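Progress report, Aim 2. The chain analyzed during this reporting quarter is listed below.
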Amino acid sequence: MSLQVTRSDVSSTWNGQDEMSVLTFNLNGETFAIEATVVQEILDLLPETRVPGAKAFLGGVINFRGKVIPLADIRLAFGMEAGEGTIDSRIIVVQLDIDGEPCLVGIRTDKVYEVTTLSRAASEAPPSVGMRWRAYFIDCLVKRNGEFVIVPNLKTIFASH
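Predicted structure tokens for the chain:
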């Protein structure tokens, strides 16, 4: 099975819309965006319980409104080094459908910026060569204010881990 991203994958990211409302955030100096509709809450860093034997990507859990949810560091999926928490660090709680079942997951970030709108016309599939990250973990790149915003494919990232 090939996990290569194609132009049709990029159009499915937009669900037939010309714009997408997203939450932008920072990981290791790069700007990422996830669809705002999957975001449940943005939290300050919380005490984390490490899970013995768990992989570093999903190595801990947090208590979110009385529920135990996994805490992911998607930097590791992209081959970045894990970051230390700072005063600006946040956890974005998202709800994803994994294997047809809704699942809450916390994503550790360096900083959360804003909810904004991205334009489909400014989006492109990630290049298949020259990327320092796995292209199949990226839905698309969107040019905004002279820089690229990375829209990760969270379902693929979590399914692979």
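The two ends are 16 Å apart (CA to CA). The longest strand covers residues 19-27. These observations will guide the mutagenesis work planned for the next reporting period.
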